[in-house]
């Protein structure tokens, strides 16, 4: 008999789990524990519309407080969990409160990877992950301010675009030879670098930060080639790492994330995990993955909740991601790892094109730039393991859904 | 606050007072209207907030942009009056607007 379910983590996955558990008929004690004081909110706008001040905090919330009250969800927000005792099935919060559980769901997410070079601990080094991070960054986004961004990934480039639109003089420092090198094709990197430069953002690749300097707060960044870059505002976006400390200390199997199976079960039968914190099997792609993805957080949370309710459900999704930079929308579906062929559809000069990845003739992934039709068609084709006709695929006049 | 009528997938008629300035999707979500999934949260990136606008109302809304048009093409059972509710901003002129939520969203959500 399951009478108490605890959820640690008040993000996208935590909010979805609450919803699925109550809709699924769970009527016992349901407790949502979160590090942050806010009700569960959406993170994607933090580097976009929320940073720009176009959305207020209320519009970030998934649900208002009345939803949690109506569904009898006990909220322990702003009170981090300190430890899990799996043998006693008990969680201790910071401050000492102890909560017993029958099932525990970990939706603990990821945290910003931090710089480790000298000066990294100076005041004024900002990371962008939570509402609390945004206020300080936004205060520095003044017309003419020199905004320096370390890292040319999603967060770095979205922040750069927002800062530029707000009138800052923006420079992005990227260690690799191109922006977003881990997530997109080189043609897509080139396109976005060009878009940023056309808007006045300075992008410097192949540059490694070795030191941060400043009197009392960070003022400049020194690179390996000896170049220095002055900063009124410094934002670091160099990736994220899964929050595995709690799970690991409790003896759960962790390896670049909390290791779970296709039912979102951890190595302890009473503990499940969902979202950015998990290392989970992708059925479609036949490999283990850790994804930083809204859809994955929602879907795993739903899957975990249904399995907690003893309705056997397997997590089997084709992942998708998006990024907004200036007036460009990048839509990615599938995982391109292991591809043996890349096909370009359309011409980047038209500002609307896609890159398709195949392996052994099967469509693996598509990166669609300002091209909703290709993206939507690809979602279906990739899930179906479709084998497109290569000549049709390369012809942008033929709809992707017809390129079979 | 204009009154907006949502017909949920199971036929339940929900009348809600929608705040000005937010989107139709946000109004639906705030009031727990069934069937409006809005997975991406309003970024026009997933087509899971698809709705049908009452024909008499459709022409009165701002037109679809290219991105929304493309998303809708492969949404679940699109119609001439389909919209992504995250792309429709609530205005005072929408008093009485009637919106039907489809039985499914894309990808079976």
Short description:
The complex is a heterodimer of chains A (404) and B (109). With 404 residues, chain A is of the alpha/beta class.
Helix fraction bin of chain A: 10-25%
Mean of residue pLDDT values of chain A: 97
Question: Which stretches of chain A of 5+ consecutive residues score pLDDT under 50?
Answer: none
The CATH class of the largest domain in chain A, by name, is Alpha Beta
- Strand arrangement, major sheet of chain A: 3-2-1-7-19
How many strands, what sense, and barrel or not for the largest sheet of chain A?
5 strands, parallel
Rg on CA atoms of chain B, Å? 12 Å
Number of separate helices of chain B: 3
Largest interface: A-B, 27 and 24 residues
- The fold-level CATH name of the largest domain in chain A is FAD/NAD(P)-binding domain
Q: Could you state the CATH homologous superfamily of the largest domain in chain A?
A: FAD/NAD(P)-binding domain
Q: How many beta strands in the DSSP annotation of chain B? A: 5
Distance from N terminus to C terminus of chain A (CA atoms, Å) equals 50 Å
Mean pLDDT over the residues of chain B: 93
Structural class, from secondary structure content of chain B? alpha+beta
How does the major sheet of chain B shape up? 5 strands, mixed
Based on the coordinates given, report the CATH architecture of the largest domain in chain A: 3-Layer(bba) Sandwich
Which percent bin holds the helix content of chain B? 10-25%
Count of distinct structural domains of chain B: 1
> Which spans of chain B of ≥5 residues are poorly predicted at pLDDT below 50?
none
Query: Could you name the CATH class of chain B?
Result: Alpha Beta
């Amino acid at each position: 008999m399951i009478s108490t379910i605890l959820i640690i983590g008040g993000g996208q996955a935590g909010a979805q789990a609450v919803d699925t558990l109550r809709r699924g008929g769970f009527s016992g004690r349901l407790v949502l524990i979160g590090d942050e004081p806010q009700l569960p909110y959406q993170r994607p706008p933090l580097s976009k519309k929320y940073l720009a001040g176009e959305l207020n905090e209320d519009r970030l919330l998934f649900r208002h407080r009345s939803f949690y009250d109506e569904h009898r969800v006990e909220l322990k927000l702003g009170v981090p969990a300190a430890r899990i005792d799996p043998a006693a099935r008990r969680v201790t919060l910071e401050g000492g409160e102890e909560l017993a559980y029958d099932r525990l769901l970990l939706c603990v997410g990821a945290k910003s990877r931090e710089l480790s070079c000298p000066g990294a601990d100076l005041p004024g080094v900002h990371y962008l992950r939570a509402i609390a991070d945004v206020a300080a960054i936004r205060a520095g986004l003044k017309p003419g301010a020199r905004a320096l961004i370390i890292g040319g990934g999603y967060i770095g480039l979205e922040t750069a675009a927002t800062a530029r639109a707000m009138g800052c003089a923006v420079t992005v420092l990227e260690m690799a030879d191109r922006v977003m090198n881990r997530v997109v094709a080189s043609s897509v990197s080139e396109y976005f670098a060009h878009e940023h430069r056309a808007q006045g953002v300075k992008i410097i690749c192949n540059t490694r930060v070795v030191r941060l300097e400043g009197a009392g707060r960070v003022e400049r960044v020194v690179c390996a080639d000896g170049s220095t870059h002055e900063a009124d505002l410094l934002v670091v976006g160099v990736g994220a790492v899964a929050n595995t400390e709690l799970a690991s200390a409790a003896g759960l199997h962790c390896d670049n994330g909390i290791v779970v199976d296709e039912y979102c079960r951890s190595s302890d039968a009473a503990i499940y995990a969902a979202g950015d914190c998990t290392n989970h099997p992708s059925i479609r792609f036949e490999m283990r993955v850790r994804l930083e993805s809204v859809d994955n957080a929602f879907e795993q949370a739903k899957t975990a909740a249904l399995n907690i309710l003893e309705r056997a459900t397997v997590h089997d999704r084709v992942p998708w991601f998006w990024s907004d930079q200036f007036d460009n929308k990048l839509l990615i579906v599938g995982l391109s790892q292991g591809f043996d062929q890349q096909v370009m559809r359309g011409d980047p000069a038209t500002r609307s094109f896609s890159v398709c990845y195949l392996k052994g003739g099967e469509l693996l992934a598509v990166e669609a730039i300002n091209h909703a039709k290709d993206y939507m068609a690809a979602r279906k084709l990739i899930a179906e393991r479709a084998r497109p006709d290569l000549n049709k695929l390369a012809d942008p006049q033929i709809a992707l859904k017809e390129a079979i | 606050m204009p009154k907006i009528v949502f017909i949920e997938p199971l036929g339940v008629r929900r009348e809600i007072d929608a705040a000005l300035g937010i989107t139709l999707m946000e109004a639906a979500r705030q009031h727990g209207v069934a069937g409006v999934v809005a997975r991406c949260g309003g970024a026009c990136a997933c087509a899971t907030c698809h709705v049908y606008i009452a024909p008499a109302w459709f022409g009165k809304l701002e037109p679809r942009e290219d991105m929304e048009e493309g998303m809708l093409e492969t949404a679940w059972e699109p119609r001439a009056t389909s919209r992504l509710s995250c792309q429709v901003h609530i205005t005072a002129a929408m008093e009485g607007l009637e919106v039907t939520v489809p039985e499914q969203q894309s990808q079976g959500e």
